């Protein structure tokens, strides 16, 4: 490159861009990759390593002993683990389905203008920023037998005895309502963003052609909103499968083990029983189920997108 007075100076950065345009980008993100490797990949591979060992600090023989895949063989016939896993899957299906329906209805409501809309949206999203353990503690106070407001008003106005520590059904109702209260605002916001991104031209054209509201939702709005719905379900399924802190604070897995989900079971296995090897194998098994479910959702998303492009 020559200037008006002769050849110009070529900087090293220009040479670097000419040789490898992506090299500068890799250099800039390398610190983040190093932190990710230390904080994410190293613990993951260490859990895989521990999962192939029998390691209980309370046993007579201290130290780790290599057992290969024996922990995973035991998991297949572990009725306690399979029971907690089945309860977790049922809980995930219930809360994600209800939150999706309520979130869609509320997102449609927020599309309209009404008095106090800004204030309502601000208050409505507050549960999302609250930590799960704080949510569980708050709901435990509200559900406390004897001085909690919810059992008090249910008994006073309806004559219902609401006790999450004595009834399995009532404990399930409590944890499902708690999760719905906590995460429905997130579903509402994501669906609202998807609804606002839908172009108006196809809807106006369908209205001119005589399509009613049901037909527009079935053939236009829901198909265009499907990618957002699947991504929302994808995120909520992963969150619900690892629910532990809020359930631990509200019911502690009771009454009995009726609300003991797999996350709480792993927590007790590792921290109470000190069975690090078996707990690590359970964690990897849950990760496997989560990956399979997310893979199915991802295929549903990409399959629908590819069909729409053909």
What are the key terms here?
310 residues, mainly alpha, two-stranded antiparallel sheet, two-stranded antiparallel ribbon, 2 domains, MetI-like fold, 13 helices
Could you characterize what this model shows?
The protein has helices at residues 12-19, 23-51, 70-76, 79-110, 117-124, 132-143, 149-158, 168-197, 201-208, 213-241, 245-250, 262-272, 276-309, and strands spanning 2-3, 6-7, 53-54, 65-66. The protein has 310 residues and is an all-alpha fold. It folds into two domains: 11-45, no CATH class; 78-309, MetI-like fold, CATH 1.10.3720.10. It has a two-stranded antiparallel sheet with strand order 1-2. It has a two-stranded antiparallel ribbon with strand order 3-4. Strand 1 and strand 2 form a beta hairpin. The longest helix has 34 residues, at 276-309. The model has no long low-confidence stretch (mean pLDDT 86).
């Amino acid at each position: 490159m020559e200037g008006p007075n002769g050849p110009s100076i070529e900087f090293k950065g220009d040479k670097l861009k000419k040789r490898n345009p992506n090299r500068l980008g890799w250099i800039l993100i390398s610190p983040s990759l190093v932190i990710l490797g230390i904080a994410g990949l190293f613990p993951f591979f260490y859990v895989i390593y521990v999962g192939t060992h029998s390691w209980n600090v309370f046993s007579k023989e201290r130290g780790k002993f290599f057992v290969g895949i024996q922990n995973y063989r035991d998991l297949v016939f572990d009725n306690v683990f399979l029971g907690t896993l089945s309860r977790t899957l049922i809980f995930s299906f219930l809360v994600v389905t209800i939150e999706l329906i309520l979130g869609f209805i509320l997102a449609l409501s927020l599309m309209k203008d009404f008095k106090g809309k800004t204030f309502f949206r601000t208050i409505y999203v507050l549960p999302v920023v609250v930590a799960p353990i704080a949510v569980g503690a708050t709901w435990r106070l509200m559900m406390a037998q004897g001085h909690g407001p919810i059992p008090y008003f249910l008994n006073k106005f309806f004559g219902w005895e609401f006790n999450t520590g004595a009834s399995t059904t009532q404990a399930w109702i409590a944890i499902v309502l708690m999760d719905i209260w906590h995460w429905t605002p997130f579903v509402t916001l994501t669906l609202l963003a998807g609804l606002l991104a839908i172009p108006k031209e196809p809807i106006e054209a369908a209205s001119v052609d005589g399509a009613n509201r049901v037909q527009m939702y079935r053939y236009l709005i829901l198909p265009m909103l499907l990618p957002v719905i699947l991504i929302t379900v994808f995120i909520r399924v992963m969150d619900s499968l690892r629910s532990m802190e809020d359930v631990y604070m509200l019911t502690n897995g009771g009454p009995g083990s009726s609300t003991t989900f797999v996350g709480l079971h792993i927590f007790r296995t590792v921290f109470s029983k000190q069975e690090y090897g078996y707990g690590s194998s359970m964690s990897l098994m849950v990760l496997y189920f989560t990956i399979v479910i997310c893979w199915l959702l991802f295929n549903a998303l990409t399959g629908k997108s590819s069909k729409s492009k053909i």
